[in-house]
Amino acid sequence: MKTERRGFLKSALVSGSALMAAAAEQAPPKSAVIKKVDVFPTSVEFRHTFVIGRGKVGTAGQGGRYVFVRVESADGHVGWGETNTIPSWSYETLESVTSTVRSYLTPIVLNRSPFDQVYFQKQFDERLTPAVSQGFPFAKSVMITATLDLAGQIAGLPLHRFFGGKIRDKIDLTFALSIDTPQAMADVARSYPFVKCFKLKVAGDEKTDAARVRAVIEARPDADIWLDANQSYRPIHMETFLKSIASLDQVRCLEQPVQSVDWFGMKRVRERSALPIALDEGCFSSYDVARLARMEAGDLVVLKVAKSAGLWGCQRSAIVAEANGLGLLGSGLTETGVGLTAAIHLFSTLELQLPPELNGPEFLADLMVDGLEIQGATVTVPDGPGLGIKVREDKIRANAIAV
User: Fold this and answer.
1) How many CB atoms lie within 10 A of CB 285?
2) Among candidates 52, 145, 41, 37, which has minimal Cα distance to 90?
3) 239 and 130, same structural domain?
4) Which of 107, 124, 156 is a domain's end point?
5) What is the widest separation between alpha-carbon atoms in the chain?
6) Domains in the chain: how many in total?
7) Rounded CA gap, 93 and 67, in Å?
8) Measured in Å, how far apart are the chain's first and last C-alpha atoms?
9) pLDDT digit string, tens, across residues 227-281
10) 8 in a domain, yes or no?
11) Mind listing the pLDDT tens digit for each residue in 103-142?
12) Does residue 124 form part of some domain?
């Protein structure tokens, strides 16, 4: 089965590249080139407050800080990309993503075909090296999504076809449970009867966190629980917490229990844990995945498009993970419909261990798109060209932030 899956992933990568090459040859060169790039730092309102182990992600009634990129070809085709910016999670801010895209990435894509995806990735990394930091992956990601959407619009193909094609038409979502009192978190879980998996955020206090887990399971004994500590524990305290919830069968895994730089702490937790351990903040690239496998510091890799410098980097992480016997989880950063849909296209081509946690529909007041079909916690994978949705440019412009 593993050999078959690796073969599928390899063929998916090859077929995606072949599709892009064929489409590029068919497209008239002059009309296909990118002639305009617009960058929109934008406020998107949260309808619910969202708190994780590292602090607050968004506040109800206030705007989160997003960056949208619009690319246009000479013949008028348009592609869109998007990323959230959460300084408590990543060093990339609204200001840095905006200036990076405008000053460093836009000159690379202008007057090039949107099908030049390998060229873009190579040039992005040469201009903004990942040698010291991760090399501004959020900024690179938003441009990769926008140019891929444009390529799909020109070729008349949905994005998932560039990654080998979807293997399912609909994807159920995991919803996140923001850190709160045990009873409040249980009440939220109870309010979403259609959700079958919750990512339960914990905060580094083993007694209170254990009470949170037990309260949610009592409220929703039918749901799977995916724990996420967001680096909030020290290894020794994590061992105490794990012992206190050892008998709870609904708990499926534990994500990023200790600091992202503490690889030996991750290894220690994994050696003492009966639960599968997942890496997120400590695992940005396929190189990190390889290190994780070599160190035997985890069992699962959390895939996020933004942290992977885009959809291609995210797919590479998935391939390296599965080649090394690691499981896959899909997640996001409370994106609007643009980022969510990009992830849905890629995740529809992969075998994930749990429903992906893409929580924009749960926490945001507006997804800023039309045409994205979501029923309860189930998303239909779009089949229209590119992302297959209509971006509400009027709303993006109306909520623009001056930078």
Assistant:
1) 20
2) 52
3) no
4) 156
5) 64
6) 2
7) 10
8) 51
9) 999 999 988 888 889 999 999 999 999 999 999 999 999 999 999 999 999 999 9
10) no
11) 999 999 999 999 999 999 999 999 998 876 789 999 999 9
12) yes
Residue 37, helix vs strand vs coil? strand
Are the C-beta atoms of residues 350 and 378 closer than 8 Å to each other?
A: no
Give the bridge partners for 364, in sequence order.
46
Strand partners, 301: 279, 328
Question: Which residue range is the domain that position 388 belongs to?
Answer: 163-398
Could you tell me if 172 and 150 lie in one domain?
A: no
**Which structure tokens are listed for 396?**
């993006």
Reduced to 3 states (helix: H, G, I; strand: E, B; else coil), residue 387 is coil
* Residues 206, 77: Cα–Cα separation, whole Å: 53
Are residues 362 and 387 in contact, defined by beta-carbon separation less than 8 angstroms?
A: no
Same structural domain, 268 and 363: yes
334, 64 Cβ separation under 8 angstroms = yes
Q: What is the pLDDT of residue 17?
A: 52
Q: Where are the beta strands (DSSP E) in 206-313?
A: 224-228, 251-255, 277-279, 300-303
User: Residue 229: which CATH number?
Assistant: 3.20.20.120
> 54 and 89 in contact (C-beta within 8 Å)?
yes
Beta carbons of 253 and 226 less than 8 angstroms apart? yes
Q: Quick one: which of 330, 314, 305, 48 has its CA closest to 174?
A: 330
Say how far residue 110 (Cα) sits from the centre of its chain.
26
381: DSSP letter? P
Rounded Cα gap, residues 274 and 280, in angstroms: 19
- 145 and 249 fall within a common domain: no
142 plus 271 within the same structural domain: no
Asked, for residue 266, whether it belongs to a domain, the answer is: yes
Q: What is the CATH number of the domain that holds 136?
A: 3.30.390.10
Encode pLDDT of 166-176 as tens digits: 999 999 999 99
Secondary structure of residue 279 in the 3-state scheme: strand
Q: Letter for the amino acid at 111? A: N
**Quick one: 183 and 332 in the same domain?**
yes
Q: DSSP label at 128?
A: S
CA atoms within 13 A on the CB side of 270: 20
Phi, psi of 255 (to 5 degrees): -100, 140
Residue 170's H or E segment, with its range, is strand 170-172
